[in-house]
């Protein structure tokens, strides 16, 4: 490899300004907080629950199992050479071993981040070079592989670091081969990097890597022949160790084929064919990116190939996939963030948060890490550094961005009004992740039945004092009219999600300049509602004993059951204040009122919150004051969006071809967003103007 591949140097990271320095300080503070949290999480666990893999390696008495018992069920899963390397740990005290191992692993993560940043492909802006190290280390620390490694006490960070050191930190041909061979002795699939060396003209490094691997393996075989036979022959290079190979934890092609129901010779033959195709295609792509000056991407692609073709690829071995975040994909500006966001989310969050529990997407959800690895290895069209879009993607703005409010505060300028249409895949993915996080917090926000019922009595008393306690009358009146009861039951159960999603979809297609603004307002309102769910758990009328409410949607309930109404696996039934049923419907009505072009559309839009508040009260699912709370969080969502992103109202830009007003300023056109073909481009009013 040439020196052009070593793109980031110390002089490139010169301080680009006071604001960047402040942002960098915040990021390093975040790194420190994450490090302290990881240490606390590991060391607060009882000795039998932390570093579980490491403790099984060293045994209950602190002695490594070397005499024929290295691969007892539930014990060691690494190579015999890894067991040989870990032998010095047998003299360590249990408590000291846990502390030293955890801090040592964190230091390896930090070193890995610095080496990865050093390898970023040129050209790199000063700001990127200045902020890259804390960002990279933060992403590493929050990734599932690193968290899993720290929890279990695994060595999977070390092979990745050794390969990166071989490619970017040492010179010559001999030492890179030695480092790669040692890494392959710890994780055999890493031997594919010797093939990458060969394909890129580094023949001595390739031969040295293979020779070092053989020497290390032979050394372990000489010192532990029975264990080496068990690993390489009996367990087929470790394929039969650890959890069941068809478990979701095994994110390799072999594991996926087993989960699809294939077994026996057919599965083995298909696995070998697919693995061979992935190796050929992936390594050819990696060599091409290496010759293009993107050696870090080449390393990531090769690592993803190793993940896919290994018989077993456990979560702590998937750090290679995160390195693929450096690849640039897409010629349009709105597409540029899709691949990095997908990689970060896949390597940070469980599959259940990324995709819904729908049958058609379950194969992808259960194999999402493998899909990402295969995509990086074989399919994702990463841009070449010679592409004209490498540095300057095609702009997709529909209007000029608005200067941010409070521009002097670090990070706040990121909230400036963006008027372009976002990438659809990225938008759907982020909406799904945000809603999953919202559902998890809502599910956990409970203080028990007694507190919820006490708050229910408080709300009921307040409504009686205000003379707005109409819930009982409305509930029993609707029960007596079957067709009205059926209408409100259906409306309550159906339109809560359909209408907001439909509005967002229409805005995305027809009014991209307003889409982000509308999405941000409902997002802020939803997040604010979580504080109400957490701080004020509230029993809805249908769960209040002794008040005589009828649950028209869920049917007759046994209120004498001690577990009734408690936290369930589906939803927190005490998350009633504020009412997002009404809050979201109010948001729908206001958005339609502001943006709909026809009067009848505006009137129809305002009927939705009216029907919704009637439904939530008549069915016994909310108090009237819950609706007031829902309206309050929606109002706060609009205010926050205004403060951070500026006003919604847009104005036309000067038309130099046809002229403008006498003073050179454009004439505003109410309601014109400039999104339709042939209409003038528009810009939001300056941050100092009034809405």
Protein architecture, described:
- The protein has 691 residues and is mainly alpha-helical.
- 58% of the residues lie in helices and 1% in strands.
- The chain contains 27 helices and 3 strands.
- The model is unreliable at 1-15, 61-68, 565-569 and 651-691 (pLDDT under 50).
Rg of Cα set:
30 Å
* Major beta sheet, strand line-up: 1-3-2
Low-confidence stretches: 1-15, 61-68, 565-569, 651-691
Task: Output the helix-strand order.
Answer: HHHHHHHHHHHHHHHHHHHEHHHHHHHHEE
Gross morphology is elongated
Distance between the termini: 57 Å
How helical, in percent, are the residues?
A: 55-70%
* Tally of DSSP helical segments: 27
Average pLDDT across residues? 79
Number-wise, the strands total 3
Strand percentage: under 5%
**Structural class designation:** mainly alpha
Main β-sheet, in a few words? 3 strands, mixed
Keywords:
mainly alpha, three-stranded mixed sheet, 691 residues, elongated, disordered C terminus, 58% helix, 27 helices, single chain, disordered N terminus
How would you summarize this macromolecular structure in one to three sentences?
This protein has 691 residues and is mainly alpha-helical.
């Amino acid at each position: 490899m040439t020196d052009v591949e070593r793109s980031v140097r110390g002089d490139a990271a010169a301080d680009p300004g006071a604001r960047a320095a402040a942002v960098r300080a915040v990021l390093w503070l975040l790194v420190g907080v994450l490090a302290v949290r990881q240490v606390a999480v590991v060391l607060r666990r009882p000795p039998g629950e932390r570093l579980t893999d490491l403790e099984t390696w060293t045994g209950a008495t602190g002695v490594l199992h070397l005499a024929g018992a290295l691969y007892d069920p539930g014990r060691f899963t690494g190579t015999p050479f890894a067991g040989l390397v870990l032998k010095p740990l047998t003299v360590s005290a249990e408590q000291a071993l846990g502390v030293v191992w955890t801090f040592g692993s964190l230091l390896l993560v930090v070193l890995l981040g610095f080496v990865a940043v050093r390898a970023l492909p040129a050209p790199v802006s000063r700001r990127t070079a200045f902020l890259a190290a804390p960002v990279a280390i933060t992403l590493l620390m929050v990734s599932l592989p690193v968290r899993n490694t720290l929890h279990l006490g695994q060595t999977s960070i070390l092979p990745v670091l050794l390969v990166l050191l071989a490619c970017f930190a040492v010179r010559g041909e001999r030492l890179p081969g030695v480092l790669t061979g040692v890494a392959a002795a710890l994780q055999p699939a890493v031997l594919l990097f010797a093939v990458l060396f060969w394909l890129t003209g580094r023949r001595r490094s390739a031969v040295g890597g293979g020779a070092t691997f053989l020497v290390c393996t032979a050394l372990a075989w000489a010192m532990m022949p029975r264990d080496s036979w068990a690993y390489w022959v009996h367990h087929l290079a470790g394929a039969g160790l650890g959890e069941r190979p068809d478990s979701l934890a095994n994110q390799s092609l072999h594991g996926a084929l087993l989960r699809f129901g294939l077994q026996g010779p057919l599965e083995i033959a298909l696995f070998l064919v697919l693995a061979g195709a992935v190796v050929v295609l992936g390594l050819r792509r990696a060599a091409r990116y290496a010759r293009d000056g993107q050696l870090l991407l080449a390393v990531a692609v090769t690592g993803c190939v190793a993940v896919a073709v290994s018989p077993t690829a456990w979560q702590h071995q998937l750090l290679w996939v995160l390195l693929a975040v450096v690849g640039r994909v897409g010629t349009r500006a709105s597409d540029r963030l899709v691949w990095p966001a997908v990689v970060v989310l896949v390597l940070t969050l469980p599959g259940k948060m990324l995709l819904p529990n729908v049958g058609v997407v379950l194969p992808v959800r259960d194999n999402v890490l493998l899909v990402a690895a295969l995509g990086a290895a074989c399919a994702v069209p990463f841009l070449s550094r010679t592409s004209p879009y490498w540095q300057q993607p095609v702009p997709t703005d529909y209007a000029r961005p608005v200067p941010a409010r409070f521009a002097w505060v670090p990070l706040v300028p990121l909230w400036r009004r963006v008027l372009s249409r976002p990438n659809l895949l990225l938008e759907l993915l982020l909406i799904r992740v945000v809603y999953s996080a919202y559902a998890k917090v809502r599910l956990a926000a409970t203080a028990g039945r007694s507190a919820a019922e006490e708050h229910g009595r408080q709300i009921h008393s307040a409504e009686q004092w205000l003379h707005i306690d109409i819930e009982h009358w409305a509930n029993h009146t609707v029960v007596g009219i079957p067709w009205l009861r059926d209408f409100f039951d259906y409306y309550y159960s159906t339109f809560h999600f359909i209408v907001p999603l439909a509005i967002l979809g229409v805005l995305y297609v027809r009014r991209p300049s307003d889409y982000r603004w509308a999405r941000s307002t409902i997002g802020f309102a939803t997040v604010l509602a979580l504080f109400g769910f957490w701080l004020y758990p509230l029993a809805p009328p249908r769960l209040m004993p002794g008040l005589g409410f009828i649950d028209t949607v869920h049917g007759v309930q046994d209120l004498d059951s001690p577990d009734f109404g408690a936290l369930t696996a589906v939803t927190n039934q005490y998350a009633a204040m504020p009412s997002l049923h009404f809050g979201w419907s109010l948001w729908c009505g206001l958005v339609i009122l502001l943006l709909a072009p026809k009067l009848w559309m505006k009137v129809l839009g305002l009927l939705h919150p009216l029907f919704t508040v009637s439904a939530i009260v008549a069915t016994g699912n909310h108090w009237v004051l819950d609706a007031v709370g829902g309206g309050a969080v929606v109002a706060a969502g609009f205010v926050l969006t205004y403060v951070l992103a500026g006003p919604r109202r847009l104005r036309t830009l000067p038309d130099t071809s046809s002229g403008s007003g006498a003073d050179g300023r454009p004439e505003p056109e109410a309601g014109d967003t400039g999104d339709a073909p042939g209409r003038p481009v528009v810009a939001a009013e300056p941050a100092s103007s009034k809405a």
